[in-house]
Design a protein that fits this description.
- The protein is built from 8 helices and no strands.
- The protein is mainly alpha-helical.
Length: 180
């Protein structure tokens, strides 16, 4: 019997990471996701996404691929679709990913400023659309709040406020902000 302890899963994943075995590290995190639930599951996927990002940054910062981390978080959300903490992890991961793409555009100088601006804005629009769609999914998954009692109502309001804040911070589209 393997005990479903968060510390044991993290220790195994950390050992594999230090040995340079990225595939085995990912396997340890995936196994842990099957064993854990609740806050332990949320902590594990947040930790996994962080270390995957670090590993990707070392290998090829210009070609950072966070699809594995995204799929791990999504599998955790399938297991616990109404988890406030998991939705926070997923939203934060997507927002960080969106910011990464924007920074990549800034890092590459382009003598044609007008074209550079359009490329940067297109990347932002794609990222924003993904983030907006994710907020819509989270709102639906968390329900209207009324069905989850006072705590659910508070989470629903917090989610809507965060959605509006992201739109204000990252969007140039005034109509989207007004719509929210």
């Amino acid at each position: 019997l393997r005990p479903p302890y968060l510390e044991a899963v993290l220790a195994q994943a950390n050992l594999e990471r230090r040995l340079g075995e990225a595939a085995r590290m990912r396997s340890a995190y995936e196994s842990g996701c099957k064993l854990l639930d609740g806050d332990s599951l949320a902590y594990l996927v947040r930790h996994a996404a962080h270390y995957e990002s670090m590993c990707q940054k070392r290998v090829a910062p210009e070609a950072k691929d966070l699809s594995w981390a995204t799929s791990l978080i999504e599998s955790a959300l399938e297991k616990e679709p109404a988890s406030e903490v998991l939705w926070d992890v997923r939203l934060t991961h997507e927002i960080d990913n969106m910011e990464f793409h924007t920074q990549s555009q800034d890092a590459e100088p382009n003598p044609r400023r007008a074209k550079w601006s359009q490329e940067r804005r297109a990347a932002d629009d794609d990222g924003l659309e993904r983030v907006y769609a994710l907020f819509e999914r989270a709102i639906v998954a968390m329900g209207s709040g009324r069905s989850h009692g006072a705590g659910g109502e508070e989470m629903h309001i917090t989610l809507l406020r965060r959605y509006a804040q992201v739109a204000r911070d990252y969007s140039e589209d005034v109509h989207k902000i007004r719509e929210l």
